[in-house]
Amino acid sequence: MKKNDNFIGGQWVSGNSYSPNLNPSNLADTIAEYTQGDAASVDAAVAAATAAFPAWATGGVQARSDALDKIGTEILARREELGTLLSREEGKTKAEGIGEATRAGQIFKFFAGECLRLSGELLPSVRPNIGVEITREPIGVVGLITPWNFPIAIPAWKIAPALAFGNCVVLKPADLVPGSAWALAEIISRSGIPAGVFNLVMGRGSVIGSALVSHPGIHAISFTGSVGVGRAIAVECVTRQKKVQLEMGGKNPQIVLDDADLAQAVELSVQSAFYSTGQRCTASSRLIVTEGIYPKFIDAMKARMSKIKVGDALAEGTDIGPVSSQSQLEQDLSYVRIGQDEGATLLTGGERLKLATEGFYMSPALLVDTDKDMRINREEIFGPVASVIRVKNYDEALATANDTEFGLSAGIATTSLKYATHFKRHSQAGMVMVNLPTAGVDYHVPFGGRKGSSYGSREQGKYAQEFFTTVKTSYTLA
Asked: Are residues 208 and 266 in the same domain?
């Protein structure tokens, strides 16, 4: 069994132990073993990053651009291999895995260009004979903590801007899916980036994540994960005066109005709620449907869901792979029971499936006859479970959509320009989709939400500079 180590200071370094990485489609398949770091590993990585920072922060931007472009080129050249690995360890279909690997490569390519586009301002002072220069500089050593549901894209969209703008990095990937992050680190290790600029420390979040957040040598934390952990990180970072960026939960609404194209509304709802096994922070788990189209919608949804093929993530023809882990599967199934106990009707799905190989398989579940105050409509489930809420009209649909502590993504299916325009303005979400799935965003535009979903500046696109740089104002007497 291959053993894979941490990458610290330009060297591959073992931790205290190794943990197996299991395939959720086939529990008999162990992908590899990955080392488990500790607080001492974090200390070593931060020391290496700190030593590398002065030269990297002030060095030429062309070298940064060339390195990021080289990383992106290799990822794109190996997208099928990397996508297959991703699907094998995380459980999303091979097509989705390859798509995610492609996105990671595109992100590095984009930020290779952003290295050369970082701009400032030159302004006159209100005082005579004085010039004012406003510039952006890197913030220092950045700790990046990434989740299991996008194991190469999310590390990419944090690492690439951090490096592009002159920061040094310590990456802590999700312990459940270390393989994709390790493969990315191996590519970065051969990119020409100096030793210590990028470091990978794998291990338990309670150990590595906590050590990163509390370490005095870390100047900023970018975290994507659960609400509870994110809020604890925010408190710790504010106490220690670290810059912090959080992407957390979602309870994303998908509105379907009476005037919607039924076939289109059903397809985008299925895509939003169930593809990637519903394990996307932008997934729609609340389908808010006006009463005129409601009966036809739920009948069409049941018919469409009967055609969804659940199976091995790498098998040809699979639409939805397994849930990521035993604990996630148990949580998903428990919410189906909770919904029924609250009075919802299980229209279809919601069962553990036994297939040719032992894995964490579940049939996608649709609960109807629900109301907005049920737990299944308030709490993030993060699996292939969706509920339908019947409302009278657009006004009630909008109010229901906004009645949540979260605000990441929201969608509307309608042929009315009036309602589409109003929804874009009045939805309390960071991203709004009109006649499109709520899950599916571009890499060159900002990503993030409002309320309990996000905290701090946006990720991706040119807006990433807001987090990964600090502003300096300089005055010069002529």
From this structure: no
- Known active-site residue 351: no
Using DSSP bridges, classify how beta strands 168-172 and 365-370 pair: parallel, antiparallel or unpaired.
Answer: unpaired
**Which percentage of the chain shows pLDDT scores above 90?**
98
Task: Identify the burial level of 237 via C-beta atoms within 10 angstroms of its C-beta, where 0-12 means exposed, 13-18 middle and 19 or more buried.
Answer: buried
For the beta carbon of residue 55, count every other beta carbon within 10 angstroms: 12
Residue 396 shares a structural domain with residue 460: no
Q: Could you tell me the two tokens for 310? A: 């659940």
* 222, 212 contact by CB (below 8 A): no
Helix (H) or strand (E) holding 387: strand 385-391
Question: Tokens standing for 476?
Answer: 């010069």
Helix (H) or strand (E) run with residue 417 in it: helix 417-426
Q: Report CA 414 to chain centroid distance, whole Å.
A: 28
Is the per-residue pLDDT at 262 higher than 90? yes
pLDDT in tens, 321-338: 999 999 999 999 999 999
**Does residue 223 share a domain with residue 153?**
yes
For the entire predicted model, the pTM comes to: 0.96
Exposed, middle or buried by CB within 10 Å (0-12, 13-18, 19+), for 238? exposed
Residue 280 has a CB neighbour count (10 Å cut-off) of 24
Alpha helices of 209-311 — where are they, by DSSP H?
210-214, 227-239, 262-274, 294-305
Containing 328, the helix (H) or strand (E) segment is: helix 326-341
The total of structural domains in the chain comes to 2
Residue 330 designated active-site: no
Q: CATH code at 305?
A: 3.40.309.10
Same domain? For 18 and 114 the reply is yes
Q: In the block, which residue shows the tokens 């909770």?
A: 338
Give the closest residue to 298 by CA, choosing from 308, 287, 309. 287
- Indicate which residue of 168, 281, 380, 459 is catalytic: 281
The answer on 269 and 131 residing in a single domain is no
372 CB neighbour count, 10 Å cutoff: 18
Tell me which residue range forms the domain holding 269. Answer: 252-434
- Specify the CATH number for the domain of residue 467: 3.40.605.10
> Of these residues, 89, 247, 380, 459, which one is catalytic?
247
| Crossing angle (nearest 10°) for helices 294-305 and 262-274 | 50
**Which pLDDT value is given to residue 478?**
85
- For the chain, first and last CA: distance in Å? 67
Residue type at 163 in one-letter notation: L
Residue whose tokens read 């080289």:
70
